[in-house]
Each structure stands twice: as structure tokens, then as C-alpha cells.
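User: Structure please.
Assistant: Input sequence and predicted structure:
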Amino acid sequence: MLSMQDIAITFNEGTLDEKKALQDINLEMKKGDFVTVIGSNGAGKSTLMNMISGSLKPDIGTVKINDKNVTMLPEYKRSQFIGRVFQDPMAGTAPTMTIEENLAMAYARNKKRTLKIGVSKKRKALFKEYLETLHLGLESRLNAKVGMLSGGERQALSLLMATFTEPNILLLDEHTAALDPSRAELITNLTGEVVEQFGLTTLMVTHNMQQALDLGNRLIMMDKGQIILEVSGEEKQKLTIEKLLHEFQRIRGTQMENDRAILG
């Protein structure tokens, strides 16, 4: 479903601020894979996400989605088959529009544009059905402005908007980091349920090592723009935070920075 071959990109090349943001990235994801991505600040996690979404183009290398070469395809065209939830709950929704209108906009993302009414009775019933799965009571608030929702409610709505059209790839970009612990737990649990329900191929970046261990069937660790460790299956199930930190030290010869990757 996703293939990244020999991807590399350098920022500010030829200047004192030159940085190799990604180096020799090779990543294959089969349909239904749920890969969690961890690493310290500046490891290249968000750059990896932006490379897949199309907001960045590689200096070298190839990106394929569902066997289609999308390396030079702009972000707005890739959005037809990519769903993404950002760290900021404000980023994935239109605050001045209603819940119903936001859902209608997301629903039309991978469909041919027409002049038909945006929200029919049949579509409204479908939206209510999907909203009920969130267990937040939003199905009875279809005409509420999204800007009036709490951060957790908006992020739950963003998750639903990114997934119910069943995109080829779902990108979760630290989507619980801005929430308080109880809301973060709610969205984490919803994520597992929604991904399983739709059988989505998912890549999730997180600073929270425990979250990366709890979710998904594969885990990759990044550092300085490189993938330095990949584990899956039973090996991943047996991992602990302590073992991950030990692996980082074994590979890099130094301890991982004491940032949110550990404290999470």
C-alpha cells in the first residue's frame, strides 16, 4: 500500500544551517499495517509524514501509494487517498462550519464533484451512524459549530473525518500530544477501534513510547533522519520502554535525549 525507496532530502543545502532531514529511507507497508514511529525531536518523523502527504518532495527517491508513483504528485491530489490527523485539534476541521458541514466536506474528498446538495437525508443518517461510534453524543449536535467543541471532541471528529472514507493511507501526526491525559487516552482508544474497524493502513508518529508499544503491529525508531530500528509481531509485543532505550544506546552508542519520547 505504501512504498518509499531510497528517500533523501536536505534542508538549507550548501549553508551553515544544512541538515540532512531524511537519509536512505526505505519503508514498505502492506494493506492493514499499523506502523508507529518514535524518535527524539529532530529525528525526521514529521518530515517523513510530509513526504508521504506530498507537502514535501524528495531530493532523490520514489514514493508509491497502492502501486502508483506519487513522488511528484501535489498534496491536494494525494488527499484523495490519504487521511491525516494533526497534532493541533484546530487543524483538521473548519471551526466556523457545523459538524454536519465538516463531515460533508470530508465525505466528498475522494468522490467526483457534483452540483447535488451537500447533505441529503440519507447522508445525514450516515453521519449520525458514524458519530455514534465515538460515544461522545455528537450525533445529536450535527448543527453545532465545530469551534464550540472541546479539543478532545474536535480531535475525535478529525479522526472520524480522516477515516470514514477509508483512505489508502492514514497519517496520525502526534494526534494526542496537545490533549490532556484523559482526552489523550480517549483518542488513543478510539484510534485503535477505528483503525481496526476500517482495516486501515496507518502510520502514526508519536513522542509517547508507551503509546507506540500499545498500538500497531510494527514499530520503527528514527534518529537524525534515518530509520535505525524496526520491530514487528511478537518481537514488538515483548518490547518495553526500557528495552527500546537500551536498543537506541546499543545502535547509537549514546543515550536517547530525555525528552517527551521517554517522559510520555
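The chain has one domain: 2-95+149-263.
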